[in-house]
Amino acid sequence: MKIFLLPVALCLLTLTSFAQNFTFGQITYENMDFDRKTIDSTANAVVLKEFGTASIQKDDNTGQLELIFEYHTKIKIYNKNGFTAANVVIPMYKDENREEIVIDLKASTFNYINGNFVETVMDKKAIFIENRSKYTRLTKFTLPNLKEGSVIEYSYRLKSPRLFNFKTWEFQSDLPKVWSEYQVYIPGIYNYNVSLKGYQKLTDQKVELSKDCLRFNGVSIDCSKITYLMKDIPAFLEEENMTAPSNFKSAIYFELSDFTNPNGAKTSYTKTWKDVDYELTSDKSFGSQMKRKDVYKDLLATIIKDAPDDLQKAQAIYAYIKKQIKWNNYYGIFTEDNIKKSLETRSGSIADINLNLIAALSAANLDAEAVILSTRENGNINKLYPVISDFNYVVAKVNIGDKSYLLDASEPLLPFGLLPLRCINDKGRVINLKKASYWMDLKASQKNTTSYILQGKLNPDGKLTGLLTTYSQGYAAYNKRKDIMKYGSIDEYVEKIDERLPRIKIKHFEISNVDSIENALTEKYEVEFTMIDGTANKQFYLSPFFINTITKNPFNLNERTYPVDLGAATDERISIQITMPDQYEVLEKPKDMAMGLPDSGGRYLLNTSFENNTLSLTQALQLNKAIYEPEQYLYLKEFYSKIIQTQKSEYLLKKAN
User: Considering the entire predicted model, what is its pTM?
Assistant: First the structure.
């Protein structure tokens, strides 16, 4: 990700002409006939223009300052796949006392019919509000009368009490854009840190002085009027194996540095980590909860009675918290009430659970710290200066001897020392009650590891019978255990596998270590399935690639400007031995292969043989890195393409007599 710090100063820059806002409903032949080849020949829809403004104004009713954001866009739709551009969602923040509201919303669809532009105005009844979460509401609507070739247009105003982040402007979205322009009015009493993230550069920027833009406490205040322009912006195409798109889309971000009251008093919002350390460690919903050893005074002896050393004490406490408090699916770094209440009610948020864990570890005289972080879907943290609102999660860190373990007790199926993948995102900030905080890398402590072993025989009727054994460790085991727990019993889980694999009949099974989460999950299945129509023919083809075959390349872009982030390294091994019913000779077989990614990034190994009337295959796929940089993307794409081609090959067998 690239971050450019942009100046906010009262100066004039030489620039190209800016469009400013455009009149609603003025559809032209140029709009209707816009050739998408000029920007993206594959686009289902194209943003012809978008314009936005943001300013701080005084609410006449409350006397409070608020942010007014105005948005206006015009989009050309080319086919039915582009109709999704007409499904609009506007997020709105809310809390107990304040909320954002959308006003003055209007939307129309324009079609060219019999030589005339025909406007269909959206009915206000098509607008509805959805409560998405405790802090988020959504304004949703769909534009009417869509046809291939339609142009849609909508605009709205958002009134917001949130001045700290001003208003982010995303230049890049899932649609290509011809013109995107954003104009902000920042009063001189506010000082914002402004940054441009992403890989696209501004086409132009203009800074002007806007006189008397705000009147506050009887004082007239000037503004910096800043206009940002970006043209011919490619669509941001999402693929699998990535963190939050907001980490990579080209966008302008604002964070309040300081505010100067007209009377001269200055309030600084950009703090040092020393300031934040003090605030967090003394906060009644964070640091004060870490200190609550008293909660575990009478419980501890029972929890660790069978633990002879510090590591086993930590493991026992971790197991106790996981069993005792159920996660209520809320994130956050601050407790909702206090850790004692969540322990008593046996329910709590991420902070309730993991601050309980830290307090219990500390009560056992173990060296426990808190690690605040931002989850993968929440985006990366700004490490230039502390912004507590960037963090949405807290885990425990316990230091035993020369080793440290990161723990999240919200997931019962996680083994000791393994964080859920949602937490594996860049860096976390370690908060210690007595020492200065510091950054640490958040890396998976285990791989995604699976081994498949099949011992079978091919019968004269073309059916294969045998024993398939699967060993799963690390994240592979965690994900399998979660799948098993979704069902009422192991029998039901296996029944669902049987339904999903119609060619394979599971005759008997044995699954062990479902609850022993520190051990490998072992699955044994006696299976029967048809490999060929029969072996009556003197020669026939037989494919040995029927376990976890890769049929689709996960990497399909011509270029990817953001990393491939798997979260954890991967190791998958497959071993197959099939005894044939008669004597055969091999006419063709899959070619052995050994190929690797640059810089020891991974490898694919394949070895096939046919000896003593037994067909054998060993296959290994290893991805040694959790993160592959954009310049390694095409290597990954080619790597998977070759694997897919290889797994299309078959044995050609001929009866020996």
Answer: 0.86
